Amino acid sequence: MTDPLEKVTATQVREAGLEDWRQIVGRLKARFRTGDFATGLALVNRIGAAAEAANHHPDILFTYANVVVTLVSHDAGGITSRDLDLARQITADAAELGVSSDVSGLSQLELGLDTASGPRLAPFYAALLGGEVDRGGEPVDASGQVPTVWWQDPNEGDDEWALPPQPFEQRWHFDVWVPHDDAERRLQAVLDAGGRLVSDRAAPAYWVVEDADGNRSCICTPAGR
Q: Among the three residues 58, 78, 101, which one is the final residue of a domain in this structure?
């Protein structure tokens, strides 16, 4: 694991002795129970210094009592030795501050839609969620504010893994909350991406929009409530 551009396997991650960290999808993630803002800020500053020294930078979610750190080598498309090394350094920094980790409850939300039309609908959902369509054809938000959307073709799959039939057609619905002064720009982006306005009767509280297949979502604001 000396090549910094070579992805490591899930087995290598498990055998790396990173007790504070877990692989979730293609990322390493840790949650540190800082307990208060000042301790969390001290840890974030330590992480920042370590990241600059390594020239390898994690994503950090900093709340009052927790610091959640996510590591991935984007140029390699997964976890590399750089992530393992930085994870060890972050663990050491947390230990020096007396901060414990908590691997329970680590998660990453993804939204899946059963459709064979994912690539065609992707621009709509990228516009709705304020993101971009990645090289894999999935809408992603680089700022990390909303989950990635992925597609699952209901006509594909192995019969061995087929699920029992449902008594109803499962659909989804997004309530996408945006600032009151950004709603109309977001709405226009959705319309430009092939979406349709179903109703603006409740605006500015919310606008109902739908994609080309009729799956509906709402653009919501605190205004008018």
A: 101
Q: What is the pLDDT of residues 145-169, one digit of tens each?
A: 888 888 877 776 556 556 567 666 7
Residues 182 and 161 grouped into a single domain: yes
Domain boundary among 53, 79, 101: 101
As a whole number of angstroms, the distance between CA 197 and CA 191 comes to: 7
Contacts of 4 (CB under 8 A, 6+ apart): 73, 76, 80, 81, 82
The percent of the chain in helix, strand and coil, each rounded to the nearest 5, is: 30, 25, 45
Q: Is the pLDDT of residue 41 over 90?
A: yes
The band of 179, judged by pLDDT with boundaries at 50, 70 and 90, is: confident
CA–CA gap between residue 157 and residue 144 (Å, rounded) = 30
Give the mean pLDDT of 127-132. 91
Give me 85's structure tokens: 């090394």
Q: Print the domain residue range for 51.
A: 10-101
* 118 is a domain residue: yes
Taking alpha carbons only, the member of 225, 196, 199, 201 closest to residue 213 is 196
CA 133 to chain centre: 14
Are 152 and 162 spatial neighbours (Cβ–Cβ below 8 Å)? no
Q: Between the CA of residue 114 and those of 111, 118, 156, 159, 212, what are the distances in Å?
A: 10, 9, 10, 16, 15
The two structure tokens encoding residue 99? 């901060």
SS3 199: strand
Gap between the Cα atoms of 189 and 193, Å rounded: 6
